[in-house]
Specification:
Mean pLDDT of chain B: 88
Oligomer: heterodimer
Distance between the termini of chain A: 54 Å
Shape of chain B: globular
Radius of gyration of chain B: 25 Å
Number of strands of chain B: 16
Number of helices of chain A: 14
Number of helices of chain B: 19
Low-confidence stretches of chain B: 1-5, 17-39
Largest interface: A-B, 37 and 46 residues
Order of helices and strands of chain A: HHHEEHHHHHHHHHHH
Strand content of chain A: under 5%
Structural class of chain A: mainly alpha
Number of strands of chain A: 2
Largest sheet of chain B: 7 strands, mixed
Strand content of chain B: 15-25%
Low-confidence stretches of chain A: 1-5
Distance between the termini of chain B: 47 Å
Radius of gyration of chain A: 28 Å
Mean pLDDT of chain A: 87
Shape of chain A: flat
Strand order of the largest sheet of chain A: 1-2
Chain lengths: 332, 440
């Protein structure tokens, strides 16, 4: 090695086989990496300055609370007295013993299955209709989207009035001589006790499918027209055009709608809270995971346990999102 | 693959380490000092601002006191924060656990059993020194009220308004049918049968019914009236599954299931049912006089109150509103001054005149203003009926798990009303659940 040159600079010009110079001289490798990092930083530090604020904000309001919440989930803490470290006990009880959590998980999954079966389908159907050359298309689009912009509390309150024993729905049923139904408090004998949850699902679909309509409509308008023309020339009928052109064209949007929809649906809370007057009844049949989290945090002052519920929900969502991404990437 | 894992591992490790480092640097959650550690009240001569949280809403009796209090105490300013009853609970948990306690807060007396054992409230005993505005505490309040204000030797709240249940009934319909309000359970069924109408022939009342709600407030009334209790005297196990409890639940739910005179009520309040004739009898607290007057003014003169029909003995839950100071409040001495000011008899009368509720203080309850004939009740003096009920009322047990237990009991009543369990099954299952909660 020539005198007066650094080991890193010398290695730059003396790569050897079978071992690289940096592998033969590990200290040179570190120096090389260090100088590269410094060079890269010098080149791009304005970028780091620009992202510093968002990174700080995300750290402060998202990452740190998440880490803190995980730490709290390992404790028994009522918020008023010092927390006591209990390790994974909260998770053990939650996943192995807690019947209420199982009920909440089942209810939420049923809500997701029903909601995500009907909601996006309705959204796609309405988008297909609005994609035709019809009059007042903008008006319909706005009308479908209006409930999405309305507060969930307002929507919940309106639907609660509709579902009341003396509400509009029962008035219509009674007018037809069908008697009234306790939509939000039905006994076990009606739909295995699931009518209250189904009532919540219906209100949620009404509120949310306009979002999917707008997303699907935008995606439909981006599918090249010449693909349809080519399919038509090939003799494809309307259904075949939909199946072989429209659906593949919508695939990324369908993935987006389902991932966002499932994540949002698993976090359902507001409408259930309003519709059931915060008791998530009858007999906990409308209690969702977030409702159970809320109860543990605010009503029972079990902050550690509530944090464990939150992390369990996070894990469920992470698994579902991963599976969806895997499924759709295989399809690609 | 290895590179990806390393990269992702580095990113995750970075955020976790950063989070832990920052979390470690951040101040630890401020534990609430135990209430018994409250020192002898210091004199607060320097100007201070105290925060007052009030859940009364528009009809608040607290806000009108502020100007007079500030004029009398120029060194104390009040930051008044009106909150909803629905949300004050949540805000309180977050504020106190985060070390941002208000100085004075209105608390529902049904929340006190769950919070007080956790040391949430400052001990007001050193400030009160056995008196309130110069009157011995045992003269200022009834024995039942004093018991519910205390946790051991501590005083955790001051009874600002009280809530006990009595019977509201449609006096116009009673008069029309020549009926008197029932005084016993048997009479309740007899009177109910003469009132209730089954218009659709399903065997259940849909007009002029007795309101049956699946909650602990209403069920505990029947439980107490039948000689039962919610928990054992040492609060270590469920007691509502006693033979008295099972009989009480059977009677309560049979008002619908067997007698066909009750209506399973799931709406937010009873006002709508009283207005449209679905409900002719229901039990509730004195504050409901104000609720009805505001929500159903057209029913003025048609409603009366009477003692709720008893069985073995009279009984009701005892609740209401307390004025408390959280243990971490920055200015407890100034907060006590405000509480004492609000508890003066002349200011307590405002609980009735502004909010239509029953003042907690005995002197206010006996005052002429509060005992005026109530126009809405057709000239009846309503508060003495409720005052009488306080003598035999019971507060909910002081256990930190009360909120969970309350929910379990309500679900047991609901399971019977939905005909999914017998009263015995429902209460046995609920007792097992409550015992598990208590042993945690």
């Amino acid at each position: 090695m020539e005198t007066g040159t650094t080991l890193g600079a010398w290695c730059d010009g003396h790569n050897t086989r079978p071992l690289k110079c940096s592998e033969r001289f590990p200290s040179a490798s570190k120096m090389l990496v260090g100088s590269q990092v410094l060079r890269t930083f010098r080149k791009s530090y304005p970028g780091y300055v620009f992202i510093a604020l968002p990174v700080a904000a995300i750290s402060l309001f998202l990452i740190i609370p998440m880490v803190a919440s995980f730490a709290i989930s390992l404790t028994e803490w009522n918020g008023f007295q010092p927390p006591v470290f209990v390790g994974l006990q909260n998770y053990r009880i939650l996943l192995l013993e807690d019947q209420k959590f199982r009920q909440a998980f089942f209810n939420t999954t049923l809500f997701v299955l029903l909601g995500m079966s009907v909601g996006p389908t309705l959204g796609l159907l309405s988008a297909l209709l609005l994609n035709q050359n019809i009059k007042f298309r903008a008006l319909f689009r706005t009308a479908y989207f209006l409930p999405v912009m309305t507060s969930l509390v307002v929507v919940g309150t309106v639907w609660r009035y509709l579902y009341n024993d003396h509400g509009l729905l029962n008035y219509l049923l009674s007018s037809l001589g069908l008697g009234s139904v306790r939509w939000l408090n039905a006994p076990n004998e009606i739909l295995w006790g699931r009518l209250p949850l189904i009532s919540v699902v219906v209100a949620s679909i009404w509120q949310g499918f306009g979002f999917e309509t707008v997303i699907f409509l935008a995606a439909l308008q981006n599918i090249p027209k010449d693909l349809y023309e080519a399919a038509e020339v090939d003799g494809a009928n309307r259904f075949q055009r939909f199946w072989h052109v429209t659906l593949p064209g919508l695939r990324p949007v369908i993935l987006f709608v389902y991932i966002i929809g499932i994540i949002g649906s698993y976090q359902v809370f507001d409408q259930v809270y309003v519709l059931t007057l915060a008791d998530f009844g009858p007999l906990g049949r409308t209690r969702t995971i977030v409702a159970y989290l809320y109860d543990n945090f605010f009503s029972y002052a079990r902050l550690g346990y509530a944090s464990a519920v939150a992390y369990s929900l996070f894990l469920i969502l992470a698994v579902f999102s991963y599976l969806q991404l895997r499924f759709f990437s295989r399809q690609e | 693959m290895y590179g990806r894992i390393t990269r992702w591992g580095s990113i995750v490790s970075f955020w976790v380490l950063l989070g832990i480092a920052l979390a470690a640097c951040a101040p630890a959650p401020t534990p609430v000092p135990p209430a018994e550690a409250t020192p002898t009240p210091p004199a607060e001569e320097a100007p201070v601002t105290i925060t007052v949280w009030d859940y009364y809403g528009e009809a608040t009796p607290i806000e009108p006191l502020i100007a007079a209090f500030e004029a009398e105490n120029p060194n104390i300013k009040i930051q008044y924060e009106p909150l909803d009853w629905d949300s004050i609970n949540e805000k309180f948990v977050v504020a106190v656990s985060g070390g941002n306690s208000p100085d004075v807060v209105t608390v529902d007396m049904t929340w006190v059993p769950g919070w007080a054992p956790l040391g949430v409230f400052a001990d007001l005993a050193p400030f009160a020194q056995g008196e309130l505005n110069g009157v011995p505490l045992d003269e200022a309040f009834t024995a039942g009220q004093l018991e519910s204000m205390r946790l051991g030797d501590q005083i955790v709240t001051m009874f600002y308004d009280f809530d006990v249940y009595s019977l509201y009934y449609r006096a116009d319909i009673f008069e029309e049918k020549g009926l008197e309000p029932p005084t016993t359970w048997d009479e309740l069924i007899q009177v109910g049968k003469q009132l209730a109408e089954d218009t659709n022939g399903d065997g259940r009342a849909d007009r002029c019914a007795y309101l049956v709600a699946a909650d602990t407030f209403h069920f505990s009334q029947f439980l107490f009236e039948n000689g039962g209790s919610l928990l054992t005297p040492d609060n270590s196990a469920a007691a509502f599954n006693s033979p008295e409890g099972i009989e009480a639940l059977r009677f309560y739910t049979d008002l619908i299931l067997k007698e066909g005179i009750g209506m399973h009520w799931t709406e937010e309040d009873a006002v709508g049912g009283v207005k449209d004739g679905r409900i002719c009898m229901f039990s509730d607290g004195p504050y409901y006089m104000g609720v009805l007057a505001a929500g159903a003014p057209e029913m003025a003169g048609k409603i009366r109150v009477a003692p709720h029909p008893g069985n073995v003995r009279p009984g009701s839950y005892l609740g209401g509103t307390g004025l408390s100071t959280p243990a971490g409040a920055p200015h407890p001495a100034a907060a006590w001054k405000f509480i004492e000011f609000a508890m003066r008899p002349e200011n307590q009368i405002g609980v009735y005149t502004y909010a239509g509720a029953a003042p907690g203080l005995r002197a206010a309850l006996e005052s002429e203003e509060v005992n005026q004939p109530n126009e809405y009740l057709g000239g009846q003096r309503g508060l003495p009926v409720f005052l009488e009920a306080t003598e035999t009322a019971h507060h909910f047990p002081y256990v930190k798990q009360w909120a969970e237990i309350d929910e379990v009991i309500g679900a047991a009543v609901e399971a019977v009303l939905l005909e999914e369990k017998t009263p015995q099954q429902a209460l046995e299952d609920a007792a097992a659940e409550v015992n598990a909660i208590l042993s945690r």
